Amino acid sequence: MDICDFSDKIESMFNEFGPELLINIYDPRTGMRGFLVIDNTALGIGKGGIRMTPNVSAEEVFRLARTMTWKNSLAGIPFGGAKGGIVWTGGSDSLKKKYVRAFAKNIGDLIPKKYIAGPDVNSGEREMQWIAEALKNKKASTGKPSKIGGLPHELGSTGFGVAESTKIALELSRIDIKKARIGIEGFGNVGSFAFKFLTEAGANIVAVSDSRGTAYLENGGFELQKLISLKKHKKSVSDYQKADKFEKEAIFALPLDVLILATVTDVINESNKNSVKAKIIVEGSNIPISEKIETEFFKKGILIVPDFVANAGGVISSYAEYMGYSPKKMFSIVKEKINQSSRAVLSESLKKNKNPREVGMKIARGKVLKAMSRKNQ
Question: Which residue, 58, 138, 139, 179, has most beta carbons within 10 Å?
Answer without folding.
Answer: 58
